[in-house]
UniProtKB/TrEMBL annotation:
GO terms for molecular function: ATP binding; protein serine/threonine kinase activity. InterPro entries: Kinase-pyrophosphorylase. It comes from Alexandrium catenella (Red tide dinoflagellate). The keyword Amino-acid biosynthesis does not apply. The lineage of its organism: Eukaryota, Sar, Alveolata, Dinophyceae, Gonyaulacales. It comes from the Eukaryota. This is Phosphoenolpyruvate synthase regulatory protein. It holds the Pfam family Kinase-PPPase.
Length: 309
C-alpha cells in the first residue's frame, strides 16, 4: 500500500494522475487542486485520498499560489468550461478568497470540496481562537527561506495582473511573451499559468473592428504567441460570461453579436489572416483540448527554440 501511495503521490506531483483515451474528448474526470500557497499540503492530501480509489484515474490539475480575485475568476471560469466532469479540491486559508471562490462557484455551477474552512473553524472553536488566514503561515516571504525562483514567480504573477486585456501596452517590451487571440479564448488562464514558471506574460484581444496597437508590431515577433480555441467553445465561454454578469446585475459591456457563432468564426478567420501576414509570430497554440499544463509547455518550448536559433 505504501508503494502504491508513493507512486500516486509522484503522479500528483507531475500534475496528471493517470491517462485516459477519453481525456481529449472531455470525458475524463478532472480534479482541480486549488491552493493559495505552494500546494504541497493539497498534493499530499489528494494523493492519500485517491489511494482509497484504486480503479480511478482522474486527471489532477494543480493551481497553486492563487492570491487574487482575478485568478479565482479565471480558475472558476476554466472549471466551468470543463463541464460536469470537473471538481475543485479547494484548500484556501484566506477567508476572503475562500468566500469569493465559493460564491463564484455556486453562481457558475462549479462543484467543489471546501477542505480548509471546516477544519480551521473547528480548531478555532476548540481553542477559542481565530486563524490568521495567511497562506503558508508567514506574513511576508523572507529571502532567507525562499529562492530566486519564488520571487521570479511573484513578479511574473504581478506582471500578468497588470497586463491583462491589453492594459499597459507601453510596458509590453518587458514581457517574456505576449499572448494574442479572441476574447475568452483562454489567454488569461494561460498567462497566469506561465507565471507559475516565472514567465511574464501579457495578453490582448484581437478583433477586426478594433485598431491593432502599435506596440504589437514594435515587439520582437518571437515574443508574440497566437492563441486559438474552437469557435463553439469560445461561444459557450462567452455565454457563461454574459450570464454571470447578468446574474450580478452588472452593466452589459458586450455587443449583441458577442456570442454569435458567425461573428466568432469571422474573428477567427481575421486572426488566421493576421498570423499569415506576420509569420514571425509563434503558434498557433490551440487551447481547445489541451490542458493548461500542455499549452504552457508548448509556449515554453517555442520560446526556447527561437532563442537558440
Amino acid at each position: 500500500r505504501l508503494e502504491m501511495e508513493r507512486e500516486m503521490r509522484q503522479k500528483v506531483y507531475d500534475e496528471v494522475v493517470g491517462e485516459d483515451p477519453d481525456a481529449a474528448a472531455g470525458l475524463q474526470k478532472t480534479i482541480y487542486v486549488l491552493s493559495d500557497s505552494t500546494g504541497e499540503t493539497a498534493q499530499l492530501l489528494i494523493s492519500r485520498l485517491l489511494v482509497q480509489f484504486r480503479s480511478l484515474k482522474p486527471a489532477v490539475r494543480m493551481r497553486a499560489n492563487v492570491r487574487t480575485a482575478e485568478q479565482i475568476e479565471t480558475i472558476v471560469d476554466e472549471v466551468s468550461s470543463a463541464g460536469p466532469n470537473a471538481l475543485v479540491f479547494a484548500t484556501l486559508v484566506d477567508p476572503r478568497l475562500d468566500d469569493l471562490f465559493k460564491e463564484m462557484s455556486n453562481q457558475m455551477g462549479v462543484k467543489y470540496i471546501d477542505v480548509m474552512s471546516p477544519l480551521l473553524n473547528s480548531i478555532g472553536d476548540f481553542f477559542d481562537a481565530e486563524a490568521s488566514g495567511i497562506p503558508g503561515g508567514a506574513v511576508l516571504p523572507s529571502k532567507d527561506i525562499v529562492d530566486e525562483e519564488f520571487f521570479a514567480r511573484v513578479e511574473a504573477v504581478q506582471y500578468a495582473q497588470q497586463h491583462l486585456l491589453g492594459l499597459n501596452q507601453k510596458d509590453w517590451k518587458n514581457a517574456d511573451v505576449l499572448l494574442i487571440g479572441l476574447s475568452r479564448a483562454g489567454k488569461v488562464s494561460l498567462a497566469f499559468f506561465l507565471a507559475q514558471y516565472g514567465i511574464k506574460a501579457a495578453c490582448t484581444d484581437i478583433r477586426p473592428d478594433s485598431r491593432l496597437p502599435r506596440e504589437l508590431f514594435d515587439l520582437d515577433p518571437r515574443k508574440v504567441v497566437v492563441v486559438e480555441m474552437q469557435t463553439n467553445l469560445i461561444a459557450k465561454r462567452r455565454r457563461n460570461r454574459v450570464d454571470e454578469m447578468r446574474s450580478k446585475s452588472l452593466p452589459q459591456l458586450f455587443d449583441p453579436e458577442y456570442t454569435d457563432l458567425g461573428r466568432i468564426q469571422a474573428d477567427t478567420d481575421y486572426l488566421t489572416d493576421l498570423h499569415m501576414q506576420n509569420p514571425g509570430w509563434l503558434g498557433p497554440v490551440d487551447l481547445t483540448h489541451l490542458a493548461l499544463e500542455e499549452c504552457a509547455s508548448a509556449v515554453i518550448r517555442a520560446l526556447r527554440q527561437v532563442r537558440h536559433r
